[in-house]
Design a protein that fits this description.
Distance between the termini: 17 Å
Shape: globular
Helix content: under 10%
Mean pLDDT: 94
Low-confidence stretches: none
Number of helices: 0
Number of strands: 11
Largest sheet: 6 strands, antiparallel
Strand order of the largest sheet: 2-1-3-9-6-7
Radius of gyration: 15 Å
Order of helices and strands: EEEEEEEEEEE
Length: 136
């Protein structure tokens, strides 16, 4: 049982809303697209949130890594006042240095398509959270 999760949908900074993304089942995936490969389309930023279960904290923050076959086509950014901050390089991890609590800590994701690929529904990418979780 994970004590920290990634959430999507209607999200409010500092709240506990949104839908928890599924962990390996595909039941509630984070979805971006469809993207047009012919025009090398890049998606609009997608707001996501990271939060611990009630009663737990990641006092030292967390690292969110992108893994999977097409991880190099995803980029992450911190939140900047309710908008996407500066995106890191495609495929790069995002470090959130502030404590992660039971309230949403927002961050952002985007993906890109390339003309060298065939259109497909890619389910190979995972966002992997690494954090030290402890009781409050």
């Amino acid at each position: 049982m994970a004590l920290i999760g990634i959430y999507f949908g209607e999200l409010t900074a500092g709240a506990a809303d949104g839908t928890k993304a599924s962990e390996g089942t595909g039941a509630a995936p984070i979805t971006i697209g469809p993207l047009d490969t012919a025009s090398n389309q890049e998606s609009s930023p997608l707001k996501l949130a990271l939060r611990c279960d009630s009663g737990y904290t990641a006092a030292s923050g967390a690292t969110i890594a992108i893994s999977g076959t097409t991880a190099a086509k995803w980029a992450l950014a911190p939140d900047s006042g309710g908008s996407a901050g500066t995106f890191g390089a495609y495929g790069a991890s995002l470090v959130i240095a502030s404590a992660i609590t039971a309230a949403n800590t927002l961050f952002w994701a985007k993906a890109k398509a390339e003309s060298s690929e065939s259109p497909l529904s890619d389910t190979s990418v995972d966002l992997v959270v690494t954090a030290t979780i402890s009781p409050v």
